[in-house]
Amino acid sequence: MNLQTTSPVDIHQFMNNHLVDVFKTMLSMNATLLADGPPTHFTDRTTGSVGFAGDTVTGAVYLHLSSNFANQMATAMLGLPPEETPGEAEVNDVVGECTNMLAGGLKSAFCNQGHECAVSTPAIIRGTSFQIESLPDVRQELMVYECNGSRILVEVHVKYNQTT
Amino acid sequence: MPLKILSVDDSRTIRLIVGRALRPYDCILCEASNGEEGLVVAARENPDLILLDVTMPVMDGVTMLTKLKEDPALKAIPVIMLTAESGRNNVVQIARLGVRDYLVKPFKEEQLIEKIGRNVTLKKKEAALATIPAPQA
Q: Which of A113, B64, B82, B83 could make a disulfide contact with A8, Cβ separation 3.0–4.6 Å?
């Protein structure tokens, strides 16, 4: 068994198209990829995460948002009046579901390339200062988007185990 | 008689979107947040159609669909899978289990209504959609 160094799926290309589609379709929001996006720091962060695992590929998709923008997403997706503040459970559900759509799409792309895997249910992390550490041999892909004046950071961790 | 539609999804947001899409129609929406609850609600309410998520805690959609098709009282209920996963094998697997149709997330409400309308007859109504909420965990 060895570690595959080239990805069977162009994660950047896939995620760029898919995130724009998810935000447009579910939130009626236009997200734009920032080509050389500067490092994005959130003072108050809401992160959705969904893992995927199979015999030849494992990893996780993280969707990092400012808590303020996560609230905006929940307001848009739930169709709440702009003056109404969504509850934490509602925000968690919306962020979790959007992360699930991103990870589900990526999972399908892997499966179509012969890398069968399953996805987990979403989890939410909230905080002011935390970092996702990746293990050795795990590829880390970062993509930064701008949407309604806010930054969105998508982080994909992936490890390929290619039987040779 | 209004149509009875069961939405089985662990995301309250998705169930809410389904309810919003169906609001103009003469429907009663029943809800469940996982496959186990979904089987209980399906047996109790005998819905005309089930909208079923795939990845859920407690019991996933594929397991619920399998059990549904094994139950003579429930197996004829048409099922539309609502899933974030569109991989070929995934689609083939759920098709073999007898699913009527599937809709990949993200989806527009009009797409959902179109899929539902292919399987049951939706009639517009004036009054608000009645909802039977998911049992509390």
A: A113
pLDDT digits (tens, 9 = 90+) for B24-58: 999 999 999 999 999 999 999 999 999 999 999 99
Spatial contact of A138 and A57, defined as CB atoms under 8 Å apart: no
Which residue of B9, B11, B33, B59 to mutate against A (max A Cβ within 10 Å)?
Answer: B11
Candidate from B55, B83, B106 with C-beta closest to A21:
B106
ipTM given for this complex: 0.85
Instruction: Name the class of domain B3-130.
Output: alpha beta
Say if pTM beats, i.e. exceeds, 0.95. no
Q: How far is CA A93 from CA A120, B32, B123, in A?
A: 15, 15, 31
